[in-house]
Amino acid sequence: MDVQSTVTNGHSGKRKADCDPEGQPPAKQATGLRNKKWDKAEIMRVRHKHIGPNVPVFFEEDPLHIVRGRGQYFYDENGQQILDCINNVCHVGHCHPHVVKKAQDQIAELNTNSRYLHKEIVEYSQRITSYFPKELSVCYFVCTGSEANDLASRLARAYTGGREIIAVDGAYHGHTQLLIDISSYKHDVPGADGPGEHAHVVSLPCTYRGQHRDPETAGELYSDEVKQAIDRMHEKGKKLSAFYCEGIMSCGGQVVLPEGYLKRIYKHVHDAGGVCVADEVQVGFGRVGSHFWAFETQDVTPDIVTIGKPIGNGHPLAMVITRPEIAEAFAKTTSYFNTYGGNPVSCAIANAVLDVIEDEHLQENARKVGERLVDGFLELKSRHDIVGDVRGMGLMVGMDLVKSRETREPASAEALTVITRMKNLHILLSRDGPAENVIKLKPPMCFSLKDADNVIRNLDVILGELEDKRKK
Q1: Which one-letter DSSP state was computed for residue 402?
Q2: Using the 8-state DSSP alphabet, how is residue 237 labeled?
Q3: Where are the strands (E) in 180-271, listed by range?
Q4: What is the Cα–Cα distance from 131 to 126, expressed in whole angstroms?
Q5: What is the spatial distance between Cα 396 and Cα 441, in angstroms, rounded to a whole number?
Q6: Is the dihedral of CA 398, 399, 401, 406 positive or negative?
Q7: Contact present, 446 and 72 (Cβ < 8 Å)
Q8: What is the spatial distance between Cα 58 and Cα 428, in angstroms, rounded to a whole number?
Q9: Are 201 and 237 in contact (CB under 8 A)?
C-alpha cells in the first residue's frame, strides 16, 4: 500500500495508513478532546491528574476560570468582569490591541532565530539601551527572568573569576537551581535544602519589621551586612562574584529599600572585585512611577541588569543588559546562543510594548495612580488598627496586616480572608511577604484612579468587618 505523504500548499498531508476510512486519525476520533466541553470542575480534575502537584492555583477551593482579558480586567467563563490588581506581567494591559496586532503581523511573516539578520532585534536593542545609563549598552536576549538571572551569574563569574553570590533575604530571582540556591523565598521553606554552597544571604532591609527601623540609619546598617559577608568570604579564601538585588523587594513584601542602601553596597562589592546585578524583572519599565527602573531610585548604576515579565506583556521574553567589558570577558569563555531569545516575533512584541508605554504615558500614570493608592491606604491605616504599615512606589504597593501594632505580629489568616472576600467582590489581590500577611498590588499599568478608589472603598468595608469580628 502506498503510504507516501501528499503535499498541498507546501504542507505534508496525513498518510493514508494513519487514517480511518472516514479520514480521521483513530486517536483523535476516539478521544474527541478538541471538541470537549471544559467546565471548571473538569479542568481541575484533569489538572490534578496531569499537572505537577506543586504547581499552584489561586484560590484552590474555588479557583477562577479565566477565559478572556482586556486592559486591567479579566473575564470568567460566565462573562463576569474581574479587576486585576496583581498582573504585573501584562504590563500595558491584557490583550492590548497594538501589541496583539504587531504579534499577529510578525508571526504571519517570519519567526526564526537570531543567527539571521533581522531589524526587530537591533531596533529593540537600540531603544531599550537608551533607557539605561550609557555604560550599559550590550544586550543578551533570553526567554524568561530565570534565564536572565542565571545568565547574569555566568557573566559575573567570567568577569570576576569569583563564585560567591550575595542576595537579600526574602528575594526570589528565579527557578533554576542556582537561583533557588540564592533565593530564600524558595529555599528557606519546609522541605527545601536551604542556601547553596556559594550563596550568602543578608537581611531584608525592612524598616518596619527588620532589626534596623530608623530610616535615617537603616541604609548604612543594613548595607554593613554585605561588607561583613565579604569579609567572611575572604577569611575562607573565597572570592565574590556578584550581589543581586531588586529595586523594590517584591516577594519580600513590597519593601522599599532605605535611602543610601544600594549606593553603599555597590561600593563594598566593587571594592571586593565583584559586580552588582539589578533584578528589574518584576519592578522595571516605569512601574515605580518616579523612574523607569527601580534601581534609579537609589542613585546607582549596576554592572548587569536583568529584565523580563513586562517586556513582552505576557509573551516569553527577557534580557540581560551589561557593560561592554563584562560582555567581552564572557565572550572569551564560550559562544552564546539562545534558540528562541530575540526571535523576530518576540522582539516585534517588545517594540510594541515600548510603543504603548511611551504613547500612553504609562510611567506617569503609575506615579499618579500609585500616589492615590498609597494615600488611600494610609487613610485606611488611620481608621483600622489591623493595618500596621503601608509601603510602595508607583503601582507596586503593599499593606502589612498585623494582629497588634505593638507586637507587629503578622495577621496572615486575616490577609487570606481579605483577598478571598475581595475576590468574591470581583477584585483580584494577592498576599506575600515571609508571613504572607502583606496585601499586594502590582496591576497592569493602565490601572486608573477609578480602579484605585474602587479597591480602597472595598478594602475599607472588609477591614472594618474584620475588626468588628475581633471585638466580639
Answers
A1: B
A2: T
A3: 199-202, 240-246, 248-249, 255-256
A4: 9
A5: 6
A6: positive
A7: yes
A8: 10
A9: no
Lookup: cell for 351: 517594540
What residues form DSSP beta bridges with 396?
Answer: 393
Look at residues 7, 29, 33, 32 and name the one whose alpha carbon lies nearest to residue 18: 29
CA 367 to chain centre: 19
Residue 446, Cβ density class (10 Å: 0-12 exposed, 13-18 middle, ≥19 buried): buried
DSSP E strands, 85-194: 138-142, 164-168
pTM above 0.85, yes or no: yes
Scanning the structure block, which residue is given the C-alpha cell 470568567? 76
For cell 530575540, name the residue: 342
Q: Which tens digits make up the pLDDT trace of 310-365?
A: 999 999 999 999 999 999 999 999 999 999 999 999 999 999 999 999 999 999 99
Is residue 67 classed as helix, strand or coil in its secondary structure?
A: strand
If residue 469 lies in a helix (H) or strand (E), which one and from where to where?
A: helix 449-471
User: Which residues have CB under 8 Å from 301's CB, separation 6+?
Assistant: 133, 135, 136
Q: What is the pLDDT of residues 257-276, one digit of tens each?
A: 999 999 999 999 999 999 99
Q: What is the predicted pLDDT for the residue at 32?
A: 67
pLDDT of residue 469: 87
3-state class (DSSP) for residue 1: coil
Q: How far apart are CA 198 and CA 164, in angstroms?
A: 5
Residue carrying the nine cell digits 526587530: 120
The sign of the CA dihedral 114, 163, 255, 413 is positive
Low-confidence stretches of the chain (pLDDT < 50) are 1-22, 30
Output the CA–CA distances (angstroms, integers) from residue 241 to 136, 152, 160, 193, in the order listed: 18, 10, 6, 22
Tell me the three state secondary structure of residue 26.
helix
From the CA atom positions of the chain, what is the Rg in Å?
24
The torsion angles phi and psi of 172, rounded to 5 degrees, stand at -130, 120
414 vs 394: CA distance, rounded Å: 25
Give exposure, 158-172, as e/b (b: 16+ Cβ within 10 Å).
bbbebbbbbbbbbbb
- On average, the pLDDT of the chain sits at 93
Classify 347 as helix, strand or coil.
helix
Question: Quick one: DSSP state of residue 309?
Answer: G
In terms of Cβ atoms closer than 10 Å to its own Cβ (0-12, 13-18, 19+), residue 51 is exposed
Buried b (16+ CB within 10 A) or exposed e, 333-370: eeeeebebbbbbbbbbbbbbbbbbbeebebbebbbbbb
